[in-house]
Design goal:
TIM Barrel; 8 strands; globular
Amino acid sequence: MKSFAGIYTPVVTPFTPDNLLDERGLTTNVERYMQSPLTGLVVLGSNGEAPQLDDSEADRAIAVVRAAMPGDRPLLAGTGRESTVATIAATKRAARLGADAVLVRTPSFYKAQMTTDAFVRHFTEVADQSPVPVLLYNVTIYTGVNLLPDAVAILSQHPNIVGMKETNSDMVQLGEHLARTKAGFIVLAGAASTYYSALALGAHGAILAVAGVAPDLVVAIYQLALKGRYVEARQLQRRLAPLAKSVGAQWGVPGLKAALDLIGLAGGVPRPPLQAVSAAASDVLRGQLTDLALLPVTA
């Protein structure tokens, strides 16, 4: 089975001025990423505003991204829904549209009932019926629930559950995922603030928003860590940190989209109720991009 280790970025979903999917902008972004050292892409992640899209828009986004990618570059598609039935349906559609694997977030609306047993049952049913490999997605900052190591250890034994994205910054928990899962199970870091720390613990790569703005730098940190050159990797992490915070915890999707606009990619405005960043925030982003030599060179 294909390994999904490596570095990915969750592509944003650009919209036209009349709030429709900007297919041309999305295609342009993907084509640019295909010239970078990124392992592959994630469509319909949290930074792709997946909860803001209806099913027809989500399916079209997968199709557009897949069409712009060569077959040997892996595409992960976010298919998590609140019900098991809806998640399975979205997963099957994503597979038909060309996703190599699906990234399935934890259901979270009924938080008190989202126990380890409930998660194990949910993800097992999804994986049983998925035509493509499944990666678990733990993103407590948005869902308010936590996929604990007990559940991950059990789920890693399923032949069609091949890995997970751990977005929490809890390195003790990430270490448990690495220690308690079966051989070959891929653990990808999802928090840029602890990216270096996760790699040092043994994470097999990452899915990071900032990789969509600074892919060369993010991949360089990964490659240095693979070679055991941790001092150099840590130095690059420190350089990356201010921008990573801006397009992550501080301004989120609006900050990420603004940064993409500044480097010549299609970001655009987020879909309401999300709002564009302020002019002051844009100035901060411009300064950070300048510091990293990421702004386009003008004549």
